[in-house]
Amino acid sequence: MEKLSLKDIISKICKEETFEAVSSDYSFTIKIDSYVPYACAAIHDGHQFRKELWENCIHTEYERWYEEDPETKNMIKSHPIVIAGCDSRFEYDLNRMPEEAVFETAWGKQLWHEPLSQEMKDKSLTKHMNFYKVVHILIQKLERKYGFCTVYDMHSYNWKRWDREVTIWNLGTSNVDNDRFGDVIENWRKSLSEMAFPNDIKSTSKINDTFQGNGYFLKYITKNFKNTLVLATEIAKIYGDEYEQIIYPEVVSAIEKELIKRIPEHALSVYEAFKS
Asked: What is the CATH number of the domain that holds 102?
């Protein structure tokens, strides 16, 4: 992996070059092994937290980790196109619009001892803006090249805090065209329900059961690209213990191996259905 400036990353995508890089400010990674009509994203995978913010932050390292989506990049790392955030959503949230991306409170708790200066906010918002510049160029390239593109927007959620039984997989579809895409969404839900996990975990999948797909990443792409379907795909944190801050690597590995097969199969079927 090489370190590249925003300008160089965009240039490589425009020239349809393959590469693997971290942005020069270390805020996100991108890998393009080949140009295919689908991409994978793990925008909440990051845990980095700018050191100059540490003393002012009320939340602990564990509290930040608890609300992030650890290992989601590892679940999709083998696919040809992967973009992932490196920074914690507690610095800025890539799944919120710029005006709301830097939190004042987080999950009902004040985040900062003292309000952030505009300079501190601007450092974070610049990284948010640059990420979306790359996303825009990437989806534009794929849509122009293939006529249609699918984005697998991977997230995870804390299932133990729910006061009812919840699904392993949740698809959030409230902001996509369900009349147009309902059949392929259902096919993706069904495929996820058939996954095999270790440790006697049985896969289940539902649509809009725990989350409805209200994230800015999905909304941004859907608004700007009419022939790209974003599938907000959330997995319950069955691959670890959310209270003990433990990851079960054998479960993460099993998820990755299942997705190696299931994402390309589904992406091809979507492409065949909607290519121009």
From this structure: 3.40.630.40
